[in-house]
Structures are given as C-alpha cells and as structure tokens.
Amino acid sequence: MNWALLQNSLLISGLAALLSVAIGWHAALWLVGLPSRWRNRLLAVAIVALVLPPFLVTNCWLHFLGRTGVWRAWLPLNIYSPGGAVWILALLTWPITLLLVLGAWRRLEPALLESDPALGGGALIRWLLWPMARGAVGQAAVLTFVLALNNFAVPAILQVKVFPAELWVKFSTNFDYAGALAMSWPLVLAPLALLALLRHSEIQWPRGAGAATACAIRRQLGGGWWWSGAAVTTLVLVLSVGLPLAQVLAAPRTWSELPKTWQAAAGVIGNTFTLAAVTASVCVALGVMTWRWRVGVVLWLPLLAPGVLLGIAVIFLFNRPVLDVIYRSMTVVVVAWTVRYLALAWHCVSRARRGVDRDLTDAARLDGATGWTLLRHVHWPQIAPQAGAAWYVTYLLCLWDVETLVLIVPPGGETLALRIFNLLHYGHNAQVNALCVILLGLAVAPLVAWSAARRMTRGRNDE
Fold it and tell me: What whole-number distance in Å separates Cα of residue 103 and Cα of residue 203?
C-alpha cells in the first residue's frame, strides 16, 4: 500500500468536499429566499453544473490557467496541482449540497418563524436552519467525498497522483489483477461506508416551495446573509456553468474546426450515440423487469466505485476464449456501462412502478389484461415520465464516461469522450472544443427529438 498516495487522495477529496459543501450551503441560503419560479430556474442551472462532463470543465480551466493559459500572465496559478484538482472537483459537485440542504428546509413551517420574529441573521442559521440541515450537510459531505475520491478524469488530465489515476497507470503497464485489487481497497471501502450511512437515512429532495414563504425566510435571514449567498452563487454559476460553455462555444476556431472534426469523427459519433442509447434502454428495460427485486443497495456500489476498477473486473471476467466474442465487440461496453449505471434507472423505475394506480390495475385485470398488455396500456403511461428521465440521465452519463471505457475499449469502439480525454493530453484545444460541441449536441438531441414529437402529436390532435 502506497500510504503517501492514500494521504494525497484523502487530502484532495476532503478539501474538495469541504469547498463544495461551503459553496452549496451559501447557494442554499440564497435560493431558499427566492420565489419558487426563480428558485426552480436556478436549480436547473445548478443541475447543469452537476452533469457537465468533467473533461469539458477541466479543458476550460486548462485554457485559462494552463501553462500557456490566457489568464496565466496576471493570475499565475498552477492548475496542474492538487489545488487545481480540488477547485475543479468542487465546481463539479457543489449542487449536491444545494439540493440536499434545500430538501431538508422543505420542513420549515411558518410557525417556526412566527414564534420568534426577532430570531434572524446568524442566530436564525445557528438555532433553526443549521439543526434542520445538519443531517443533509453530512450526507452531502460524505457523498461528495466519495465521488471526489473515485474521480478519475480530472486528476488524470491534471497529472495529479491519486488512487484511480495510479490504478489505471499501474494496471495498464503490468496487468496485475492481484496488485490492482490490493491497491484499490480504500476506493471500495468508501462507497460501502457511504451506502451503510445512507441506507438508514432518508434523503429529502427539493420540490417546489417550502411550507414557509420565501419572503418570510428572506426577511428573517437578513440582507447580509442573503446577499452574500447571492454573490457566492452567482459567481460559482458563472465559473462552473457559464465559463466552460462560453469557452467552448465562443472560440472562433471551435466553429472553423467543427466541419473537419465532424468528418474525421463520423464513426466515433455514431459509436457514442449508439452505445449510450442502447445502454440507457437496457437499463430502463431491466428496471421494468426487476423492479420487485431487493437489489437497490447492491446496484449503487458499481456507480460509486471507480470506473477503472470496474474496467479491470470486466477484463478479468471476459478476457477468456469462451467469451471472446463479447470481449472484442461493442457488447462489452454495453455490459460494463449497464453494470455501472443500472442503479439510477432501476431506482427511478422501481419507485414509479410502486406508485401506479392500483384501481386502474385491478380494473384492467378484471377485463383480462395481463403481462405485456397490462404494462403497455396501464402501467407504462403512468411510469413513462420517470422512465424517460431515467433513460436520459443514464444516456448522459454514458456520453461522458471515460474511466470505465479507458481499459476495455474494443477495436473500433472509441467514443467522443475517450477521444477528448486523449487529445487533452496533447493540447489540441481547437479540436477538443469542436468535439465538445458535438458531444453537447448529442446530449441535447433526445430533448429536441422529444420536443418535436410532442409538437407533432399536439398538431395532429388539434386537427
């Protein structure tokens, strides 16, 4: 065991979690005092920060603070450092704290504020808001710590030595399964501890406005705390969402290189969309078929553990003569991604399936509906929105995935994410930006298709 490497990994993950929680807490202080319309809009932007590809955000900061970065002359900060990794990981994960804290504050009732109108400012935070959100902050801190500890793309691009990146380097050079397993025990222990912690605690998610009005909360919180939260949130939204997207979309060379990049990467684009769409469909289908099984906790472990470790396990299991057909084809990618991301789809579909209208089900069964007919005409219309959301989230995660694929990519199975990851090591910024634009286009393509289908359906109904 390399204890120095473990210490470095724990330090980076701990600092990233601390910074992420601090940012998310200040953002929650601002959003809780906003009207529900503006709160929901800003939550949507914050979720964009959470789902942006890690390599896109890292590429942005390399552009500004890299060795030849445009800001390097007047802001001489070294992004190729543990501090750079902490900063980028915090920008990627701060919405977790925001969502969990706002979910905890849904229980804030008007009577709690009206009982003592003089309770405000720091005292309100100390005696009311903090006790209500303390558990949520702890959950967010542990979840962020685990995600930062197991992150591969950011440290690998920044050349920072942490466990997932070193695990990838060591295994790809000597193919030592036993050594990789012995080295990776902290990366497995952390998700197990997280699952044990969250298994007995309920996570609250923000849904609309809380019981107490935003105006009352803002009034008692005071202008100082509320406006400081506004300043922190605005700045971090600009840095975590606005700056990465602007850096990619506003560069003139991005668009001049786009046609040539599209032509050169046509096959890779097809691979990326097909593999992601097929995997998302398989995950949703498995969720529909197995929603009764009690496997929810077990399915979360592959998602929380490093994808590099999952790739090593796939090589160990499938790199055999009898399974050579799977191992050397695109099927191995679908299998690996399904194992990694099944938890999200299964959880969403399972919750939706348990919430279907039993009266409709009983009525359909009395009419003779069973099996596929029952699912198609009764259950699916009720669970389709949740299943669609699960499909889309899984699709996005597959589009961004690098760490699971980096060790198992079959011949001709390269994806856009993997090509971007490889090009980032060689400084091809214009081509990387063009590939990121194409990848973002693939990300929004299902939403565009869904919106167009809805409009066509409405048009036919109006006729």
Answer: 8
